[in-house]
Amino acid sequence: MNKPIQPPASAYFIAPEKDRSEARTLSILVDNEPGVLARVIGMFSGRGYNIESLTVSETEHEKHLSRITVVTRGTHHVLEQLKSQLDRIVPVHRVVDLTRQAGDDGETGPIERELAIVKVAGEGEKRVEALRIADVFRAKVIDSSTDHFVFELTGRPSKIDKFVSIMTPLGLVEICRTGVAALARGAAPM
């Protein structure tokens, strides 16, 4: 009997391990000037990375600084490269991976909140059920008529996702979400 030929023991024959894709929340402190957001976002799109959430606002008026909060997904190695490249853009002052930060209490992960406005149409039992569920989620009614409600809801993105999935069969019409606003835990500034 002939034995099958075995390849030599070499690193070239070992299948490379695939890095898992992970979600990261990046906080980017930039000069508040025209074109900066386009340059930062261009860094993502130029490398083929999707932005799951984007929030931008001026945070320090006197210093003309804005904070860009980006939630994106990728492998650890690629996200570290992206952070490094973002750090090299001239109007970028600081890039912090909030996902990796630990607070004074030892808890990891950022404090994340998102605002959603959700329109639900329905009558009868579905209307009553929508109001009951909104109460459980602490959603506030900000507009209503005899055939619809508009709810305002804040919380972690997963909470909003859950609220939307429950409201869908009850008559979900439309959703508007702000994107994630996030800060690192603990007393230290970004």
Automatic annotation (TrEMBL):
Q: Which UniProt keywords apply?
A: Transferase
Q: What EC number(s) is this enzyme filed under? A: 2.2.1.6
Q: Which gene encodes it?
A: ilvN
Organism taxonomic ancestry: Bacteria, Pseudomonadati, Pseudomonadota, Alphaproteobacteria, Hyphomicrobiales
Task: Provide the protein name.
Answer: Acetolactate synthase small subunit
